[in-house]
Amino acid sequence: HTGEKPYVCKQCGKAFSRQDSCKTHESLHTGQKPYICKQCGKAFTIQSHCKRHERLHTGEKPYRCKHCGKAFSTQGSCKTHARLHTGEKPYVCKRCGKAFGTQDSCKTHESRHTGEKPFVCNQCGKAFSIQSHCKRHGRLHTGEKPYICNQCGKAFSRQGSHKTHKRLHTGEKPYVCKLCGKAFSTQDYYQKHERLHTGDKRYVCKQCGKVFCTQSHCKRHEKLHTGEKPYVCRQCGEAFFTYGDCQNHERIHTR
């Protein structure tokens, strides 16, 4: 409350109000990572970051939403989720005043004004406006998959893919159509379904201009023009436009 900052970095002179904050900062200079994950051996400069990472292995979710009871592995994720209930948008664009529920969303938006992309992949040089996006991209090069399903052990490079996969085990379908009440496990399937109600047809056939609600329907239609039949019966070799048609045909052999 006094604003006093008695802890000073020995390397650059930056001052901090807390000793642990100062030590954390100093480790950026030294590169020291004393906190090691017991499960996979990954090293961290900060103990709390190591503990947070370890929850990916254990599946522990100690933070619970007071509005709906949903549990989270990190306090930040829980706070971000709670804003869906409260409508709070604390992150405001300095250029146009638009407000956002998450800092990442705000930074992504602001980069559209500035065009700035300060985070660069050290493998291929691709630039990003947000550090977390750069880190996520980096896993394509390293093959790192830090998100582990605690039900079956399958590993993922992206947290979003991990969350979607877990719904196969839990049966959770959080995306509900407001018009008919049908529920979906992924936002992608939900958005495709909504377009059936709205008539929004954004996928256009390159051959004849016919428009479709979903990309898969458009691709299936385009095969009528190209004559492509990629699905082949394993019993007799007959080819089909769609996977469904091929499956139906194969049942003839199994009768």
Beta strand %: 5-15%
Poorly predicted regions = none
Number of domains: 2
Write the CATH architecture name of the largest domain. Answer: 2-Layer Sandwich
Morphology call: elongated
- Biggest β-sheet description: 2 strands, antiparallel
Helix proportion: 40-55%
Number of DSSP strands?
Answer: 18
Q: Structural class of the secondary structure composition?
A: alpha+beta
Protein name: Zinc finger protein 709-like
InterPro entries: Ikaros_C2H2-ZF, Znf_C2H2_sf, Znf_C2H2_type, Znf_FYVE-rel
GO biological process, one term: regulation of transcription by RNA polymerase II
Family: Belongs to the krueppel C2H2-type zinc-finger protein family.
Question: Secondary-structure blueprint of this entry?
Answer:
Layout: E1 7-8, E2 15-16, H1 19-30, E3 35-36, E4 43-44, H2 47-58, E5 63-64, E6 71-72, H3 75-86, E7 91-92, E8 99-100, H4 103-114, E9 119-120, E10 127-128, H5 131-142, E11 147-148, E12 155-156, H6 159-170, E13 175-176, E14 183-184, H7 187-198, E15 203-204, E16 211-212, H8 215-226, E17 231-232, E18 239-240, H9 243-254
Antiparallel strand pairs: 1-2, 3-4, 5-6, 7-8, 9-10, 11-12, 13-14, 15-16, 17-18
